[in-house]
Amino acid sequence: MIGTMSVRVVVREAGVVDSPADLALLDPGELARAERKGRAAPFVTGHALVRRVLGELVGCDPAQLAFERRCATCNSDRHGKPSLVDAPGWHFSLSYTPDVAVVAVAHGADVGVDVEDLTDADFEGFAAATLARDEVDGFEGLTGHELLEARARVWARKEAVLKATGHGLVVDPSEVLVSGPGEAPALVDWRAEEPRPGTIAIADVDLEAADHRAAVAALTAQPLEIVVGRQPA
Ligand SMILES: CC(C)(COP(=O)(O)OP(=O)(O)OC[C@H]1O[C@@H](n2cnc3c(N)ncnc32)[C@H](O)[C@@H]1OP(=O)(O)O)[C@@H](O)C(=O)NCCC(=O)NCCS
Q1: Strand, coil or helix: what is 40?
Q2: Domain residue spans in the chain?
Q3: Ligand 1 atom nearest to 165, measured from its CA
Q4: What CATH number is given for 2-230 in this structure?
Q5: What is the pLDDT of residues 195-209, one digit of tens each?
Q6: 80 Cα to the center of ligand 1, angstroms
Q7: pLDDT classification of 155: cutoffs 50, 70, 90
Q8: What DSSP string runs through 41-109?
Q9: 3-class secondary structure, 7
């Protein structure tokens, strides 16, 4: 009954903390990148979380995992969407804010995750920067906290899609139309020049961090089964 199977996406959330145990999991390349950050803790929490979750699911020592990157735009291996080396079929995505890191892992489907802090959605030009004209109606009547929630929700859906495809924000998010904040998550239209993903499923993710919203997208025709957990501090 392949037609009714779902793709399982394991989503793990962690609060950002300074943790020597997290730091000890990173490889020299990650440590060098962490050192270049003004505040390293979100990066360290995020990358350690990737290693812990993948280590668990793939069945390896988290510190031994190796990653590579590939840019969907210029094909460089120095930036772009990261993937696991020597673990065929496994896909993951990472997103973090100053306070929260979220990782999504799937087997057999490219996956993207995005987490947004509500306060980052609190700016005048939000609609112009992120929405297509025909998406604006979905926000009518919303004010205050509700408006920020709606913006963060829709923004997370769009960015999750663009992280699943590997384009990132090279594609203008206003050309990637998703369902409105009160509707079930879905890709509604793709108006970018880059090729539209064949099939894509989107799911909102309920986090413990009440002031954040998150979404997952996967390149699959199957429905998603989202399994959310929180990494103990
Ligand atoms: C990917 C992107 C949307 C992330 O946005 P963000 O809101 O700043 O950050 P998030 O916390 O949600 O995600 C960051 C993580 O996404 C992952 N990532 C980076 N590029 C990615 C891509 N193209 N697709 C999917 N995931 C990507 C990495 O794990 C990254 O973490 P790291 O930088 O610590 O390694 C943004 O950085 C972007 O658009 N990058 C593409 C830039 C690009 O390709 N330029 C053209 C070069 S030719």
Answers
A1: coil
A2: 2-230
A3: 24
A4: 3.90.470.20
A5: 999 999 999 999 999
A6: 6
A7: very high
A8: HHHHHHHHHHHHHHIIIIIS-GGG--EEEE-TTT--SSSSEEEETT-TTEEEEEEE-SSEEEEEEEESS
A9: strand
